[in-house]
Amino acid sequence: MSQNANALIESYYAAFNAGDMDKFLSLLTDDVIHDTNQGSREIGKGPFKAFMDRMNRNYKEELVHMVVMSNDDDSRAAAEFVVLGEYLATDEGLPEAKGQKYRLPAGAFFDIRDGKVARITNYYNLEDWIKQVSQG
């Protein structure tokens, strides 16, 4: 198992958990591909930063119970984790935010190029999240 890809993904999520968006974004290629959960594909650091700005405005999240896996040539990686979150501000098309807490299993898949994240695809159960915040 490769430590380079694993170390990159662990650094990526450590920066996320620390709220260090400069470090977080520095780990991406300029042409990063972001496949959003049940959504569209975005290309480039600019759209990814705009996505993260919206996420950080509407949600406060910490990722725990992280397991990172990678292939032998460090070109692909995956992570499984649990999202501990708080819904801070209503996101367009979603239930009203009232500070609801949620706990959500999630995963992500990565392409890695030149020691940086070139593609990230996130997966979680949106129906489960909606159920949690609707009851919250």
From TrEMBL:
Listed InterPro entries: CHP02096 (IPR011721), NTF2-like_dom_sf (IPR032710), SnoaL-like (IPR037401)
Domain of life: Bacteria
Transmembrane portions of the chain: none
Domain SnoaL-like: 9-120
Protein name (Swiss-Prot/TrEMBL): Isopropylmalate/homocitrate/citramalate synthase
